[in-house]
Structure formats: structure tokens, C-alpha cells
Specification:
Number of domains: 1
Largest sheet: 2 strands, antiparallel
Structural class: mainly alpha
Helix content: over 70%
Strand content: under 5%
Radius of gyration: 23 Å
Number of strands: 2
Shape: globular
Length: 501
């Protein structure tokens, strides 16, 4: 990333008395072009300062999310290599039901990040801390209720997700156990995510990086101990993977809590104390519900779409579904590059709107998108070149149907490579619009694409055209390109400048 910054810096330097940038480069990367003349409200930072501002926030987020995704993939690799394709299906089956449950907390955290970022820009520290306290109380109450409901409904949810189509009863039984164990940790996970969302809002992405990296490293260590039974621990297989994840979540929560509970002592911007007012603050709660409510519409629509899509994919059979899990893990890894830049765009757009500098919000949002485009081209090449060895890492070669799983996954990764520019740019631009408070527009577009277009295309590919895994990915993922057609013009128009949060 540092080399990329230097590369962009080079566009603004003179070499031997001659300007080394073309008009095309200036149009694509120069701050005066990205800020837009019609939105100009004051002086803009030079190229070096602007690109470094973005990377200061984005780089820790990218490192955090990439490492988290890599570690999550190691989790999947350990299950696949130790236990085979059936176990991969067992840990993959609960994914969408869990994400449906978590979607309310994702929505809450979108609101927390956007509101805290705006309050920081407005220099209203107490209101930022009140937002965090109210969000934590809301997260705790929701998580306790949802934990009770999810544990009771574990089997119906697994069957609804596709477990009733499983080729083996063991796949369903292990999926139910995995889901229940993971659900017990929901309150801990929800509170930790809420604190990290607030820290991202003020640009403290290094804090969240360490919280999540350490949490996931603990998870990997206990995976090694509990899945296969090493270092004197019992062999618990799929249940061991779930227990390891819960231990990692608990460690992450304690670290996140420490960053704010000791914040007052070190005069940190965000801090919590038992002496603070823990009554519901009507103004703070209204802001959270207004911004988070729109995000909740998006999250519920997205999760419904992913849930239906996952069930359709499970109908392809255990072997293709295991290959799909490998591709989804790699998709998640590549997604995190855009997600890290999306965090930066949300934070910088929100903070600068709080400072009444919508032109800087425009500038930083577009710089984040330019970074995303450059990174996606690199990811595209790497995915194509290394698709076979990457697929082979996720499943033991001596496990049943391993060669078929690898072949299906490697072929499908060509689709994954092609969608990279669309995926990363759409994530960054949606993050910028969220930072501006334009959540309803984002929610409507994402819901339409994921909950309507993607399932329809998947049904057409699987049940009408009988295209198999790769064809289903081509059809299903085509909606990502559609998002760009909506998000880029919306952000470039500046219609979000006067949104209130």
C-alpha cells in the first residue's frame, strides 16, 4: 500500500523540469478533478496529503479485514483438510441463518459508525459517547432475545437453509450443533462489533484491527487444539471449530471493552464508565434508529437474498456446494479490500460533512474508489494465476471427491476474478453514501440486487438452464455490476450533501 501511495505521489512531482502526468491521469487521480468544480467550497489538499489521509484510515482496516478473512479461511481449511467435504458443508450450512440473525447488528453498526463520524466532525464528543452507550444497550437487549429464539429454532433453521436436502444425516446434525454453539456467543459478539464500529467512526481503525486480529488468532489456535484433538485437547471435530470461534469472540470482546473502559484515564475520544448516564437518550436513539433503520432494510433484504441463494446452491449437491464454500471464502477475502476502503470512505465522508466540507467528502470518497479499482486489478490477476493451488488448500487431497471439489472451485474462480473491479468499487461507493447518511438509497438498491435479481438469476441457472456451479456464479453475481450503475452516478451527483443524521 505504501508503494501505491508513492506511485500516486509521483503523478504530482516535476522531474527535470517536466511534468510527468498526462491529462488522463489528472482526470482520474488529481484532487482538483475528483473534488469537482461545482462542489468546491474551499482549498483542497494536494495529491500527496489527500491520498495519505485515505490510507491512514484505510490501511489498518484493510489489514484487519484481510487478516480476519484469511484467518477465517484457515478455519475452513482446517475443517476441510481434517474432516473433508461433508464437514465443509456442515460449517457452511449455518452461515446464512447466522448472518440473518446478525443483520440487525450490522445495521446498528452502520448507524453507529456514520453518526459517531459526523459528531466527531461537528466536535460534539459527548453526543458521540452517548451514541455509543445507547447503541450498546440496544445491542445487548436485542442479542439476548435473538439468542433464545435462535437456539430454540436451530433445527428448523438448518433445514430451511438446505439441510433437508443434505446427502447425509451427519451434515445436518453437525450443522445444528455448530449453529447452537455459535449462537450462545451472540451477545458477546454484538457488543464487541458495536464498540469497534464506533472506533472506526472516529478513524481509530488500528484499535479494531488489533481486536479482531488477536480474536481470530485465538480462534485458529483452539481450532488446531479442538478439531483434531491436539496438545492434550479432546477431538471435537465440527463442534470443536464452533467452540474455538466462541473463545476467540470472548477474547475480542474483552479487548474492545478495554479500549473504551480505560479511555477516560487516557483521555481517549470514546470512553465508557459506570458513572456515565446509562439511561436511554432520546436524541441519540432517534439518530441511531433513523440511520440504522434504513440499513436494517438493506441487511434484511440482503440476508433474505443470500439465504435463498445459498439454498439454491446447496441443491447442486455436497461436492459442488463444498466447492462453492471454497469460492465464497476467497470472495470474502477479496471483498475485504473494498470493505477496508469502504470504512475509510464512511469515516472521511461523515467527518467532512460534519465540518461543512461536502467537497472534501466528494474528494475522499472518489479517492477511495480509485484505490479500490487499482487493487481489484491486482486481485483479478492473482486469482486467475493461482486458482488451482488456492482451491487445493481448502480440502485434503485424500478426502472423498477432493479432486472434483478442486476442479469445480478452480473453474468458478475465473468468474470471481472477473467481478473484482465491480465488487470493490460498489463496496467503497456504498460506504461513502452511508457516511453521508444516504442509507435509504443504498438499502433500496442493494435489496433489489441481492434479494430479487441474484436469486432469480440463480434459479434460472440451476433449475431452468442446468448450468452447474460456474454458470450459476456467472448469472448470480451479475447483479454486482448493476450496483455500480446506480451508486457511482448517485455519489457523483452530490445529492447526499444535505442529509441529516
Amino acid at each position: 500500500m505504501e508503494n501505491m501511495v508513492k506511485c500516486f505521489d509521483g503523478f504530482y512531482r516535476k522531474k527535470e523540469g517536466m511534468l510527468v502526468q498526462s491529462s488522463l491521469v489528472r482526470r482520474l487521480f488529481a484532487p482538483e478533478s475528483l473534488g469537482g468544480e461545482k462542489h468546491r467550497m474551499g482549498p483542497l489538499p494536494d495529491g500527496k496529503a489527500a491520498y495519505r489521509d485515505v490510507m491512514r484510515i484505510a490501511l489498518p482496516s484493510i489489514i484487519e479485514m484481510v487478516l480476519m478473512s484469511l484467518i477465517g479461511s484457515v478455519d475452513t481449511m482446517m475443517v476441510g483438510n481434517e474432516l473433508g467435504a461433508e464437514a465443509l458443508s456442515s460449517v457452511g450450512l449455518p452461515t446464512q441463518p447466522r448472518m440473518v440473525i446478525l443483520c440487525l447488528f450490522f445495521a446498528l453498526n452502520v448507524g453507529v459508525t456514520a453518526i459517531v463520524a459526523r459528531r466527531k466532525g461537528e466536535e460534539r464528543q459527548e453526543e458521540a459517547n452517548a451514541t455509543l452507550r445507547n447503541a450498546l444497550m440496544l445491542a445487548l437487549g436485542l442479542s439476548v432475545v435473538l439468542t433464545l429464539v435462535a437456539v430454540l429454532l436451530a433445527e428448523p433453521l438448518m433445514r430451511l437453509a438446505g439441510g433437508d436436502q443434505a446427502e447425509s444425516d451427519k451434515v445436518l446434525r453437525d450443522a445444528i450443533d455448530y449453529f447452537r454453539i455459535m449462537t450462545y456467543a451472540l451477545p458477546v459478539s454484538a457488543l464487541s462489533m458495536c464498540i469497534c464500529a464506533a472506533q472506526r467512526g472516529i478513524g481509530k481503525t488500528r484499535i479494531t484491527m488489533w481486536v479482531n486480529v488477536v480474536s481470530n488468532l485465538v480462534n485458529v489456535f483452539f481450532n488446531y487444539c479442538l478439531i483434531g484433538g491436539h496438545l492434550g485437547f479432546p477431538r471435537l471435530e465440527v463442534q470443536g471449530a464452533a467452540i474455538a470461534s466462541v473463545i476467540g469472540m470472548a477474547v475480542g470482546f474483552l479487548m474492545a471493552l478495554a479500549t473504551v473502559s480505560m479511555g477516560g484515564r487516557y483521555k481517549a475520544y470514546l470512553h465508557l464508565s459506570v458513572h456515565d448516564s446509562w439511561r436511554f437518550d432520546r436524541s441519540a436513539m432517534q439518530s441511531i434508529l433513523r440511520v440504522g433503520g434504513n440499513a436494517a432494510v438493506e441487511q434484511l433484504g440482503v440476508r433474505f437474498g443470500f439465504f435463498v441463494y445459498a439454498r439454491i446452491m446447496f441443491s447442486l449437491g455436497t461436492t459442488m456446494y463444498a466447492a462453492n464454500q471454497i469460492c465464497m471464502q476467497l470472495l470474502n477475502i477479496t471483498y475485504t479490500f473494498g470493505d477496508g476502503l469502504g470504512v475509510a470512505s464512511t469515516s472521511l465522508v461523515g467527518q467532512n460533512l460534519g465540518r461543512k466540507r461536502a467537497d472534501l467528502s466528494m474528494l475522499y470518497g472518489k479517492i477511495c474508489q480509485r484505490y479500490a479499482l487499482m487493487i481489484s486489478l491486482v486481485l483479478m490477476v492473482l486469482t486467475v494465476v493461482f486458482r488451482y493451488p488456492l482451491s487445493a488448500w481448502f480440502i485434503g487431497e485424500d478426502t472423498p471427491n477432493a479432486s472434483q471439489v478442486i476442479a469445480y472451485a478452480a473453474e468458478t474462480m475465473l468468474v470471481l476474478a472477473f467481478i473484482q473491479p465491480f465488487q470493490t468499487s460498489s463496496v467503497v461507493l456504498s460506504g461513502a453514501l452511508r457516511g453521508a447518511g444516504d442509507n435509504l438509497y443504498v438499502a433500496l438498491i442493494v435489496t433489489m440486487c441481492v434479494s430479487v435479481v441474484r436469486p432469480i438469476m440463480a434459479v434460472l441457472a440451476v433449475h431452468v438452464l442446468h448450468l452447474g456451479l460456474t454458470g450459476t456464479w456467472i448469472f448470480g453475481m451479475s447483479e454486482i455490476a448493476l450496483r455500480i450503475a446506480f451508486f457511482y452516478p448517485r455519489f457523483a451527483s452530490g445529492k447526499w450533501k444535505d442529509k441529516k443524521v
